[in-house]
Amino acid sequence: MNEKVALNVLGITYNRTHPETYILIMIEEGGVRQLPIAIRLAEAQSIMAFIQRVVPQRPLTHDLFSSFSKAFGIQLQEIFIYHYEDGLFSTEMIFNDGDREVHIDARASDAIALAMRMHAPIFTTRSILDRAGITPDPIEISSGKNVDEETDIPVKKFSIDSYSTDELKRRLQQAVDKEEYEQASRIQQELKRRSGEDSLPS
């Protein structure tokens, strides 16, 4: 069986080939290879809302599904991107209610948006990462926001607030190891800002 590889959400950027979509960038856990996935505007907004801790006045679809699953004791065990062909990823969500395990087919973007909310791991195969993954040049983190004016979605350079907290912590350690103290300071400031938001009373 093809070896599974864990992925983390890195951020979102423009899709310059198809301007009506965005690219969700996944990164190999413990590695540098990235897996770009084309997603629609709605899913891009949902993922960025979660990353930036934006609380909408009414729940988004992925928030609603997460709340529904938790209310009925349904656990999302993992997301598995198991097939890739012609630029399309086949993905399944694996749920467990304590009595049975259910596999549900889904778009990668929906599955990942839900996995982020339900703290479920995301996997693909070594073969898919070899075929569809990229190893980009190092990305400099910008302290300013780079915003798509039509949709208000922050996109890269990467803007520092478009990274997930786990990815920022990983990049903070990398910056310290490389003695890139100015970049490390920017990352620390963003982590402190997020920590302060988490401690605010609801």
Automatic annotation (TrEMBL):
Instruction: Give one Pfam family.
Output: BFN_dom
Domain named BFN: residues: 4-136
Which parts of the sequence are annotated with region: Disordered? Answer: 174-202
Question: Known InterPro entries for this protein?
Answer: BFN_sf (IPR036104), Bi_nuclease_dom (IPR003729), UVR_dom (IPR001943)
Leader peptide range in chain numbering = none
**Gene Ontology MF terms in the entry:** nuclease activity
Its recorded name reads Bifunctional nuclease family protein
Please name the taxonomic classification of the source.
Bacteria, Pseudomonadati, Bacteroidota, Bacteroidia, Bacteroidales
